[in-house]
Every structure is written in structure tokens, then in C-alpha cells.
Amino acid sequence: MRRLRLTIHHLYADMMNLYGDRGNVISIKKRCEWRGIPVQVVDVGLQERIRPTGCDLFLFGGGQDREQALLAEDLSGSKGADLRAIVEDGGVVLGVCGGHQLMGHSYETPEGEELPGVGIFDLHTEPRKADEERLIGNVLVRVLAPETGETHEIVGFENHGGRTYLGEDVKPLGEVVVGYGNNGKDGTEGARRLNAYGTYLHGSLLPKNPWLTDQLILNALRRVDESFELEPLDDTMEGIAFSSVAGRVAGRR
């Protein structure tokens, strides 16, 4: 039987790493290694091609407006087309904050410049108005997992000025329980289409939410072996930590 090897493609690792988003790479890598699943991490920078292996997970982190302008230009050609094709083929992509915004159709900077996005999600991002505050704070989100029909909660930290609005052809990642989410108005947080995920949750996101980490890993590995199952891990400590944080954010304790 073929031994599966996961390749994590960390997109623009040196430019999009606000609030410890590299921790998402570390979390995926460790949870694979604890199960004996080999992992390779590949940093993909400006003007570098994406080279899928067939068993891949692609990660965008968050960044500042200046970095996003450089990325928008880099993604406007073959790299963006490759990412769209990967998603259409069931590939797994996670974009956080700036990565989430760039996975949409467009992102308007505070200076009024409209940057093109990759077009993975039917969404666009507008700058905050002069009388609007940044959306900052801890977040609790209720997520429906389409794979199982189960409802989960995830926690994280958001800090963004942009307001993201979803179109008709994309569903939110989840429903805001505490926090602002995409725009502070409609109760949505993030986006999901096929195996592509977008979210504003930093923190970093995946170490705080092992369920979501495992779901990303499983989706990637099942592209090679549809019957693959992850070996259970003893997540007792992770569960206690999550419950403690979620309880504080929700005001339950």
C-alpha cells in the first residue's frame, strides 16, 4: 500500500505571518508526525511556481496592505490560475485574514486602490469608513462540518479594518457567537467552498482548534485515498484548553 506523504505549501511565509500564523504550519506538521504521517513543508515566495504533489495543503497567512498589493500582482498570473484549478479539483487551501481577503474577487485598500483577488470565493472586501473602528477581539464561531453534519465551535483572535461581504455562490465558514466576523453586521465569519477555507481568525488558529486541523489533514489525504482515516490522538489537554478559552470568550465562566 502506498504510504501517504503530506506536503504543506506555505504561501508567502516571509510576508504573511501576522499574529504567529506560522503556528498553523507547525500544528499540521506535528499532528501528522504524531500519527507517523510524513510531512514536507515548502515555502512558496514571490515569483515562485506552485508545484502540487497530489497530497497537498496550501496556507495563506495575514499581512499588511503593502504586502497584499505585492501578492495581488504575483497572484494575477499563472499562480492564481493554478490555485483556482487546485480548489476546483478538491485541493485544500486555508487563507487567514489577508489570505482570506485575497481569495475573493477584490480587496479595496484604505487609499481606494482596488486589488484583484484570486477568485476562489465569491466575496469582496471594502475598507472601513471614517467613522468605523477596526474589528478587534477574541472570537467564538459555530461551524457546521459538511463532511459529518456535526456542529463544532472554534476560537481565535481577529484584528482587521476591512469588511468582507459574501456573494451568493459561497457559504460562510461559520456563524459568529462572539466577535465581529467578516464585517460586524451579518453574523458571518470566513468562507468555505469545496475544500477551500477562509477566516479572519488569527491566534494562531489551528493549535487552538485541533478538530479543524484534523479536518484539513483528512481532506488532503483523502484526495489520494478516499477511505483514509486518521488515527485518534489523546487530545485531553487540548480539549481542556479549548473549553477554557471558549468559556471565557463566551462569558460562560
Automatic annotation (TrEMBL):
UniProt-listed InterPro entries: Class_I_gatase-like, CobQ_GATase1, GATase_3, Lipid_II_synth_GatD
Pathway(s) per entry: Cell wall biogenesis; peptidoglycan biosynthesis
Presence of keyword Calcium: no
Keyword vocabulary terms for this entry: Cell shape, Cell wall biogenesis/degradation, Glutamine amidotransferase, Hydrolase, Ligase, Peptidoglycan synthesis, Transferase
A GO molecular function held by the record: carbon-nitrogen ligase activity on lipid II
Hydrolase among keywords: yes
SUPFAM superfamilies xrefs: Class I glutamine amidotransferase-like (SSF52317)
EC number: 6.3.5.13, 3.5.1.2
Annotated ranges, domain CobB/CobQ-like glutamine amidotransferase: 7-209
Xref: CDD domains: GATase1_CobQ
Pfam family, one: GATase_3
Active site, UniProt feature: 97 (nucleophile), 202
Binding, substrate: 134
Catalytic activity: L-glutamine + H2O = L-glutamate + NH4(+); beta-D-GlcNAc-(1->4)-Mur2Ac(oyl-L-Ala-gamma-D-Glu-L-Lys-D-Ala-D-Ala)-di-trans,octa-cis-undecaprenyl diphosphate + L-glutamine + ATP + H2O = beta-D-GlcNAc-(1->4)-Mur2Ac(oyl-L-Ala-D-isoglutaminyl-L-Lys-D-Ala-D-Ala)-di-trans,octa-cis-undecaprenyl diphosphate + L-glutamate + ADP + phosphate + H(+)
Biological processes, Gene Ontology terms: cell wall organization; cobalamin biosynthetic process; peptidoglycan biosynthetic process; regulation of cell shape
Function recorded in the entry: The lipid II isoglutaminyl synthase complex catalyzes the formation of alpha-D-isoglutamine in the cell wall lipid II stem peptide. The GatD subunit catalyzes the hydrolysis of glutamine to glutamate and ammonia. The resulting ammonia molecule is channeled to the active site of MurT.
Assembly mode: Forms a heterodimer with MurT.
Family, per entry: Belongs to the CobB/CobQ family. GatD subfamily.
The protein, known as: Lipid II isoglutaminyl synthase (glutamine-hydrolyzing) subunit GatD
